[in-house]
Amino acid sequence: MSDTLNADPAELAKFSELAHRWWDPESEFRPLHQINPLRLGWIQQLVPLSGKRVVDIGCGGGILADAMARQGAQVLGIDLATKALKVAKLHALEAGTPNVHYREQSAEALAAAEPGSFDVVTCMEMLEHVPDPTSVVRACATLVKPGGWVFFSTINRNPKSFLFAIVGAEYVLNLLPRGTHEYMKFIRPGELASHARGAGLTLEQTRGMEYNPLTRRYWMSGNTSVNYLFATRKPDVQ
């Protein structure tokens, strides 16, 4: 099935196994709940979401998709992890979240079916989990309308990110389940910038995400040495 080509079965199984805990803010997904207001606020600063058509690539249990819908966006969340999508759909029903829908589909398949259909595309904490991140970046660029925005977040690849994102987060602080990340799948900002340019996207803003284990607080900064976010845009048609 073509939808599963750019996916690692082990990664899908990993997140499906934890799917029932996705909306527990004290679970393994606590970091996502904590950073969600930060990344949502950053997106909103650059492009107010009300009335926009948005697709969240690799939506998982729907934490970001749900939040964007509550800002007035028409949101489609897509993922290939079946159990996580079921949790996202159930949460939307229970919470009464308006304007959010979920679909089991790859970014590439959606791009082929609905090119240029979205004002905003988000792809957060997902690129480091797929075999071919370049293909996902291209699909995101295809999905967004001219003049629209594409947001990415991922993890840098360097000794500091290995120490903080794997050793610290997974083995010392137990913020994430062990085995959540593979160091060689991390993506340097220069690599992601190259992928974005190759797909016809212009890099508009770069931000870093930092964490203090003593205060257990996250914040956004200019430090992209570990977690970082890109805001890119497709040029308007001349």
UniProtKB/TrEMBL annotation:
Residues reported to bind S-adenosyl-L-methionine: 39, 58, 79, 124
Xref: InterPro entries: SAM-dependent_MTases_sf, UbiG_MeTrfase
Top-tier EC class: transferase
First and last residue of the signal peptide: none
Pfam families: Methyltransf_23 (PF13489)
Catalytic reaction annotation: a 3-demethylubiquinol + S-adenosyl-L-methionine = a ubiquinol + S-adenosyl-L-homocysteine + H(+); a 3-(all-trans-polyprenyl)benzene-1,2-diol + S-adenosyl-L-methionine = a 2-methoxy-6-(all-trans-polyprenyl)phenol + S-adenosyl-L-homocysteine + H(+)
GO biological process, one term: methylation
Gene Ontology molecular function: any one: 2-polyprenyl-6-hydroxyphenol methylase activity
Pathway the protein acts in: Cofactor biosynthesis; ubiquinone biosynthesis
Superkingdom of origin organism: Bacteria
This protein's UniProt keywords: Methyltransferase, S-adenosyl-L-methionine, Transferase, Ubiquinone biosynthesis
E.C. number(s) listed in UniProt: 2.1.1.222, 2.1.1.64
Annotated function: O-methyltransferase that catalyzes the 2 O-methylation steps in the ubiquinone biosynthetic pathway.
NCBIfam families given in the database record: UbiG
Family, similarity comment: Belongs to the methyltransferase superfamily. UbiG/COQ3 family.
Protein known as: Ubiquinone biosynthesis O-methyltransferase
Protein encoded by which gene: ubiG
